[in-house]
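Ticket #4471: complex job returned nothing on first submit. Input attached below:
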Amino acid sequence: MKKYLKPILAITAMVCSFVATTMASSACLMWFYQPEEPKSLQDR
Amino acid sequence: MEKFVGKMANKIATNLKYDDEQRAVIQYGLYAILQIIITAIFILLIGFFTHSLWECIIVYISVALLRKSTGGAHAKTSNGCLVVSIIAVSALSIISRYFTFFQYGYIIGFVLSPVFFLVSCLIIYKLAPVGTENKPLNSPEKIKRLRKQSLITLIFYACILAGMLILSIYYDRALNLAFSLGVATLWQAFTLVKAVKK
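Support reply: We reran it on our side without changes. The output follows.
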């Protein structure tokens, strides 16, 4: 199980980064709370 | 929810040896994913138990997609967001589902659906996009792009609304779905007014 942990975490990180980049190019997150945007994603 | 997301992001970043900025990006994306899933689960459950599942789906998706390009008012906390989202979508869906039971409900719905939609188009045309403290909109190119996106989304919704209204002549349920689209866009326009007033 442990040997699959790193690949699973890597895939999770990839998906999260993709979603974060997509959300950064829009006006806000899809629902009613907007957390602070990371500096590297600002003004995309 | 933010604390839980923070812990998960920390765990991922530590295991993969990411720096602080990469961890923040993962946290941001993870928050978005969880927010979408948790809100969807609650709304679908409420839709299922109130027999307004299709209306819930239409309101949920139409508000979410429109918000991506228009922005709007936000809750101060993530739990507040969850509560407001669930209550708003449920209320709008239930109203859309059951208004036809009242006298003249069909005619009122047939007239009000396009009226709500047109009013919201005017508001969105005038005000969108609206930034927030945590996500300000400073770039003129981005603002122009988001405005264009909002208008394209509204044109797409207008086509769906028109189709549903024509279909409602043959199938009564289509009017409920058309009304849910109208109130969803009106609700989103209302959140823009609130955000601008702040």
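The radius of gyration of chain A is 13 Å. Closing as resolved unless it happens again.
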